[in-house]
Design a protein that fits this description.
The structure holds two protein chains of two kinds.
Chain A: E1 3-5, E2 9-13, E3 18-25, E4 31-37, E5 44-49, E6 53-57, E7 60-65, E8 70-75, E9 84-91, E10 100-101, E11 105-110
Parallel strand pairs in A: 2-11
Antiparallel strand pairs in A: 1-3, 3-8, 4-5, 4-9, 6-7, 7-8, 9-10, 9-11
Chain B: E1 5-7, E2 10-13, E3 19-24, E4 31-37, E5 43-50, E6 53-56, E7 65-68, E8 75-79, E9 88-95, E10 104-105, E11 109-113
Parallel strand pairs in B: 2-11
Antiparallel strand pairs in B: 1-3, 3-8, 4-5, 4-9, 5-6, 7-8, 9-10, 9-11
C-alpha cells in the first residue's frame, strides 16, 4: 500500500522561508512530485525528484532522501500569493506510474 | 489553450440523476487519469485510461461509476443515480505515459448533488 504524510497546516510571514515536509511509505519508488493548489483551482505542477538531493527552481526547492522516505519543499522570500495547499505525490513504479497524493499542507502567509 | 480541458466546470444534479464529466487531454498526451477531491481531503485516484482502454480502475467505486476514453473525442466519467456523497471536485489529468510521467491537471468539475 501507499502512505504519504504531510502536516495539515502551516503559517509563515511574508518574506520568510518555510519548509514543508513529506514522508512516504510506498511499495516502490519511481519519483516524488510537488503540486500547488489554490482554493477552488486545479493543482499545478511545481517540481519532481527522482534522485537524492536538492532540486532548485527559483524561489522553490525540493529535496529527496529515498533511504529515509522523506522529502521537503522549501519556499523562500514568501509572498502572499504563496498561500495555498501544497501536495506531495509519489509514483511507485514497478509497473504503476499512477501518482498517489498526500492530503496536502495548507500554507497561510501573513503580512 | 493546449492544456487539459474539462467541462462542465460546475454541475448541479438532483439525487438519482446522471452526471457526465468530460476531459480532453493536453495536446500530445494519450494517458488520462481521473481523481476525486472531497472537501478538506486529498486527491483520490479513481481510474487511469489510454485511448479505448481502461488500464487501472482500482479506485473506482464498483457501482454507478464508469469511465471511457474513446478513439475519438474526450474521456468521460459517468456517475449514474447520483447521491449526496458524490458531491466533490473531479479532476482530470493527462500525461505522455513515458519517462517520469508527470501528470498535468485540468481545472476540475465541481459536482453538487441536491
Amino acid at each position: 500500500g501507499q502512505n504519504i504524510d504531510q502536516p495539515t497546516e502551516m503559517t509563515a510571514t511574508e518574506g520568510a522561508i518555510v519548509q514543508i515536509n513529506c514522508t512516504y511509505q510506498t511499495s516502490g519508488f519511481n519519483g516524488l512530485f510537488w503540486y500547488q493548489q489554490h482554493a477552488g483551482e486545479a493543482p499545478t505542477f511545481l517540481s519532481y525528484n527522482v534522485l537524492d538531493g536538492l532540486e532548485e527552481k527559483g524561489r522553490f526547492s525540493s529535496f529527496l532522501s529515498r533511504s529515509k522516505g522523506y522529502s521537503y519543499l522549501l519556499l523562500k522570500e514568501l509572498q502572499m500569493k504563496d498561500s495555498a495547499s501544497y501536495l506531495c505525490a509519489v509514483t511507485p513504479g514497478k509497473g504503476s506510474y499512477i501518482p498517489t497524493f498526500g492530503r496536502g499542507t495548507s500554507l497561510i502567509v501573513h503580512p | 489553450n493546449a492544456g487539459v480541458m474539462q467541462n462542465p466546470r460546475h454541475l448541479v444534479r438532483r439525487r438519482g440523476q446522471e452526471a457526465r464529466l468530460r476531459c480532453s487531454p493536453m495536446k500530445g498526451h494519450s494517458h488520462v487519469y481521473w481523481y476525486r477531491q472531497l472537501p478538506e481531503e486529498g486527491l483520490k485516484f479513481m481510474v487511469y485510461l489510454q485511448k479505448e482502454n481502461i488500464i487501472d480502475e482500482s479506485g473506482m467505486p464498483k457501482e454507478r461509476f464508469s469511465a471511457e476514453f474513446p478513439k475519438e473525442g474526450p474521456s468521460i466519467l459517468r456517475i449514474q443515480q447520483v447521491v449526496r456523497g458524490d458531491s466533490a471536485a473531479y479532476f482530470c489529468a493527462s500525461s505522455t505515459g513515458t519517462g517520469l510521467n508527470t501528470i498535468y491537471f485540468g481545472e476540475g468539475s465541481w459536482l453538487t448533488v441536491v
